[in-house]
Each structure stands twice: as structure tokens, then as C-alpha cells.
Amino acid sequence: MYRINKETARFLINLVRRDIETNNSKRGLSIDSETQVLATLRYFAKGGYQNDINYKKVVRAVARHRHEYIKFPVDQESIRTLKRDFFNIAACPSIVGAIDGTHIKIKNPGKRDLYPLTYQNRKGFFSLNVQRGSVHDSRIWHKCELKNKFGRKDINGILLGDSGYPLSRYLLTPLLNPQTLPEERCNQSHIQTRNVIEQFFGIWKNKFRCFLNGIHIDLNVAKNAIVALAVIHNIYMEHRVNNNDSNEEDNDDNDSICNQNQIEENCQRNAFCQIYINRHFQ
């Protein structure tokens, strides 16, 4: 029912107990923290509609731990491990991560939001885009703190993105029209390696069935819920919780409408791409 073992459930309860019980005492509520956490986990695992207001406190309490459980490693040992693990997939060197967005279906924000149609994606349903916001991946990336860390060279490595992202010295995108054998090799390696992000989104959405039918809660709570679900997923990984989730890939936002980014790339970026290809795929 909860897609979690007792030990991990107990860990989550203890993680947020203080926040929940403090909130309960202020409101004069008598529902214990264990019941609230387990009810919220059941909603996340099974989906459907959630009418009980108590899950909001759990969602906020879990989301407060985002900086502990959602972070990009920056120490050199972790970076070396990432490069090795990504290289072992398809011999793509210097890679430390893959980046993409995925749409999480939400209910119509309605009159409570001044601009509800801004959350309607090009496939016609209301959603939040994970990364953050509901706009296209490349626009979100430009406002992302991770981009700034790579730009400052705080992280020594390269990310892989699809053709919706702008090519740069730290973000490698596929060639739209490879002309040579090295370019074809690079593209094939890129595709196979970047596939991990599609697999992750598929596993994440299958682990928490609330994603599949949409998160039918208020917009602000939905935003916290998505963050909380990322925190819980990473806690599950740390505790080796295995739900036998499907490896079905998530391809809800791969139609790459921003190919004009490729046209607008300057010579320096293209030169970096060619140097990378010539150095590693000849």
C-alpha cells in the first residue's frame, strides 16, 4: 500500500515529527504524526484525490529538507565517480550529469491564480515542469542555480541535454545533422548516456502513482509536494527501498521545439563541440 518498508517509514516519521507536532499543538489537532505521514505516503503511492488537510503539513515538513537530499555533488571524489559511472554507460567522457524537464500534471489552478493559462502546456493539460515552473526546459535552465555553478567552474565536468538546450562548454547537446563518423559516434554515445534521465523520470512517476493521474491539490501545495516527492525518492534510494518499479521511460517533453537555439549558437560554442568530438570520438 505504501510502497515502503517499516524502517524507512519510521525514518521519515522521525524526520518530520517535530515540525508536524509543533504545528498540531498550535492548531489544537489530535492526529498523531505517524498517522499523518502514513496517510500522505499512501496518497503519494496510490494517487487519487486527497481531501484531508493534514497532508499539507507533512508535505511542507518533508520539503523543508530539500537542501539535505536534493543537491549536486561538488567534491572532487564524487565528481570523479560520476565521470567514471557515466563513461561506463557508452564511453562519453567528462560527463557528470544529464539534464531535462518533465511535466507533472496538476489540476486547473482556476481563479486562485491570476494567470492559470500560464500553467497549460503545449499538449493541452495543466502542469508544472520539473525543473521549476511550467515553461520550456531551456528557459528554466537560464534561471537555474546549477547553471551558475557550472558557469563559475565550481563543478568540473559536462552535462548532457537534448537539443532544446543551448550548447555551451559545460552543456553538450546532440548534433542535429551529423556529417562525419566521429560526429555520429558522439551522437550515439550522447543518446545512450543521456537516457538515464528519461529512465529516472519513468521510475519516479511509477514509484509515486499520484503523478500518473495528476496531483489534485492546490497549486502551492502541489509545488511543495513535487519537492517532497524528490526528497522521499532520494531517501528511498539511501535506504535501498526497492519497489520493482517499471523502467518505462518518460518522454513527455522531448519534441525539442527550440532548434533555433542551435542556429543561434556562436562560433565559440561550435568550436568547443568540434574539439570535444575530435578529441574523444576520432
UniProtKB/TrEMBL annotation:
DDE Tnp4 domain span: 132-234
Cofactor: a divalent metal cation
Subcellular location: Nucleus
One of the record's GO molecular function terms: hydrolase activity
A Pfam family of this chain: DDE_Tnp_4
GO CC, alphabetical: nucleus
Keyword entries, A-Z: Hydrolase, Metal-binding, Nuclease, Nucleus
Family: Belongs to the HARBI1 family.
Name of the protein described by the UniProt record: DDE Tnp4 domain-containing protein
